[in-house]
Design a protein that fits this description.
Length: about 325
């Protein structure tokens, strides 16, 4: 697919992955409309950190996927729609499950209906590896059963099923991308790699406070995840309605990941496990390891950045942003 002058809508463009994707699409020549969640601080999230060159050609719109009328107006005439907007904090979903349903399920309905009526030639819906729950087998293929082990993951399962229904019922040209644990510059401290790096670099933190060290994850650098989105948008019509994993195919425990961060930074701070950071026993996803061969066969995409390389790049970014950390170093939700 060529992107020059292609009209593209990115929801959730103010977020971690969305901002990187919006920047990449602009660099490829696309005419990008970036949806940022409305707030009273005149902030467009991480899009505010984009270069002047990017911001000068990026159309940023403040809004909310929960508004069907605004989504219909934004999607009209867009050639490609990337739907990344979601409420993603798992611990928050324990306290406010209805919020997850409103944004992740109903918001997805609004975006899909708007894309359908607006005549989009391709929609890429964002899922998550959390929908698989604790792995029943590894590596995890797209045929793995879906298990709602948190209100967040249940809401994303609902969004995935709604997306499938739009492909089946209305022939919407949509595919679903299911990224595994993406990390990198701009990720908030609610994510484990970011909160570890912040505590490692912050002189006010005498130790590294985390929850359970034993769960294993397939960490994928954000640049690789962005390229997976680009690849998913280029899939031909034979793949409409299909789901594609995007992961590195490599798995490490949380404890092993912390050791890698400490090795990169030369940190000798001790690790302290805190009970309040742990998920409820029946909700914790113990093992995630991607089989992304379906996406590789269809597009040639594969993860290129090793965990060590990605951690080095993320640490470098954090070193330049320590003046913007949260006041509460113990925060991680």
């Amino acid at each position: 697919m060529t992107w020059e002058n292609r009209k593209v809508l990115v929801t959730g463009a103010d977020g971690f992955i969305g901002s990187h994707l919006a920047e990449r699409l602009v660099a490829l020549g696309a005419d990008v409309t970036a949806l940022a969640l409305y707030n009273s601080f005149d902030s467009s999230g991480w899009l505010d950190d984009a270069s002047k060159e990017i911001r000068s050609v990026l159309r940023v719109v403040r809004g909310d996927v929960r508004d069907p009328h605004q989504m219909a107006a934004l999607a009209k005439g867009q050639d490609v729609v990337f739907h990344l907007a979601a409420l993603i904090a798992i611990p928050y979903s324990y306290d406010a499950p209805s919020s997850c349903v409103q944004t992740n399920v109903l918001g997805t309905v609004n975006v899909l209906k708007a894309a359908l009526e607006g005549g989009a030639s391709r929609v890429v819906h964002t899922s998550t590896s959390e929908v698989y729950g604790t792995a029943l087998f590894t590596p995890i293929t797209e045929e793995h059963p879906l298990q709602g082990q948190s209100p967040y993951s249940a809401s994303k399962i609902g969004a995935d099923m709604i997306t499938e229904s739009f492909a089946r019922s209305f022939e919407l040209p949509v595919v679903t991308l299911r990224p595994f644990n993406t990390y990198g510059p701009r990720q908030s401290e609610r994510a484990v790699i970011s909160t570890v790096i912040r505590q490692v670099l912050d002189d006010r933190c005498e130790d590294i406070r985390v929850g359970d060290l034993t769960p294993t994850r397939d960490f994928n650098f954000v640049g690789d995840t962005v390229e997976a989105f680009i690849a998913a948008a280029s899939l031909d019509a034979s793949h409409i309605g299909s789901v594609f994993n995007a992961g590195s195919g490599r798995m490490v425990s949380i404890g092993e990941m912390i050791d890698k961060v400490r090795a990169v930074t030369g940190c000798e701070k001790p690790i302290v496990q805190e009970q309040h950071r742990k998920r409820p026993a029946g909700s914790e996803v113990l093992t995630l390891l991607a089989d992304a061969s379906r996406l590789t066969r269809a597009t040639g995409w594969s993860s290129q950045v090793s965990l060590e390389q990605g951690i080095e790049r993320t640490v470098e970014w954090w070193r330049g942003h320590m003046d913007r950390v949260r006041a509460n170093s113990g925060y991680m939700v």
